[in-house]
Design a protein that fits this description.
By secondary structure, the protein is an alpha/beta fold. It is built from 17 helices and twelve strands. The strands form three sheets. It has an eight-stranded mixed beta sheet, with helices on both faces. Strands 3-4 form a two-stranded antiparallel sheet. A two-stranded antiparallel ribbon has the order 8-9. The structure holds nicotinamide-adenine-dinucleotide (NAD) and SN-glycerol-3-phosphate. SN-glycerol-3-phosphate binds next to helix 12 and helix 13.
Length: 392
Amino acid sequence: MPPSLEGNNNSNNTIAAAAAARGGGIEDKMTPVQSRVTVVGSGNWGSVAAKLIASNTLKLNAFHDEVSMWVFEEKLPSGEKLSEVINRTNENVKYLPGIKLGKNVVANPDLENAVKDANMLVFVTPHQFMEGICKRLVGKIRKDAEAISLIKGMEVKKEGPCMISSLITEHLGINCCVLMGANIANEIAVEKFSEATVGYRKNKEIADKWVQLFNTSYFMVSPVQDVEGVELCGTLKNVVAIAAGFVDGLDMGNNTKAAIMRIGLREMKAFSKLLFPSVKDSTFFESCGVAELITTCLGGRNRKCAEAFARNGGKRSFDELEAEMLQGQKLQGVSTAKEVYEVLSHRGWLELFPLFSTVHEICIGRLPPAAIVEYSEHTPKFSLVGGSARFF
Ligand SMILES: NC(=O)c1ccc[n+]([C@@H]2O[C@H](COP(=O)([O-])OP(=O)(O)OC[C@H]3O[C@@H](n4cnc5c(N)ncnc54)[C@H](O)[C@@H]3O)[C@@H](O)[C@H]2O)c1
Ligand SMILES: O=P(O)(O)OC[C@H](O)CO
């Protein structure tokens, strides 16, 4: 069992205990009910999210100090279990080495046990694992729980695309906000300033509570009433990041990369609005939109692996490059490109989204990396000018 911080709680719990011992009284009414937070996921961003949250739960009376963090258990080369090493060293030595998470972060390899007391659930795993996680959590969470997803990606089902926040809501019957932004985890881990966007559906009070939980002097969070817009920005930018990586691997230079980013942003906006007409134009100017696109095309993991893919002429697979270059961390862009392609082909929209469709065809080896900037009048897959002009 993970260690408990019950003996190391903030003053309100002491007040509550004293009031309970007295058998109730006026103090009880004054004692705030503290929210309990569990972070489901402990990769690179998951660990940084736990660190951010833990610094705030210590300071704010609205939250219980202890932050539970579910760890997908694995054995380290030393033979030790990752969760045990995190609890002993206060560091995620595999996914975020060299950074102390905060003593109030408690790693727990037992998923059901990690979530059972929480009324604020933060989901932050690679998107491909979420359906399985949701199925395991049915009937295991508090009925009053609220969720937020930091996950970039979508599932494609027979009925159509399903965003991860919807997957959480459908399986668990709880409201789910999202948090996306220009957030390369390693930079936030060392407390370099960045911004993020919380997307919410209706309840502004809940959005404000999430903002309170995440906001720090170096992590500035703003709420926006547009869950789908925020989540699609975070999801689709990974496809554009792959395209940007191809451009880097082909040594095409900054102008070409900027063109790819511009065209990518337009496809992101068009795709989002076709799927969800309620998506707001203004969302693309929040941190989750243009800022996130820029940072990911400059410094993200999708970009990095796509550059290596293009430098190798597409001869080494993304799976191989991911395993070699990321050591357990996961790419989201390649599978998202496939998922987006499925939606496009199913709806007859392939020709409308030349950048998105070309990225997928390069990833699966149907086209060479150079196709990202090639134009053929006979097969207008993608053109820096012609292709995108077709629908904008
Ligand atoms: N890393 C970043 O800079 C960053 C920033 C913003 C958002 N995100 C997003 O956050 C999400 C999580 O990414 P991350 O960076 O925290 O993770 P990661 O890619 O660093 O790590 C992979 C994680 O997956 C876990 N895992 C492996 N197999 C699993 C399985 N079968 N079931 C469940 N979990 C398994 C590993 O234990 C590890 O925690 C992604 O959607 C990503 O796009 C990442
Ligand atoms: O490293 P990436 O490519 O997964 O991108 C990281 C974040 O999503 C950037 O905000």
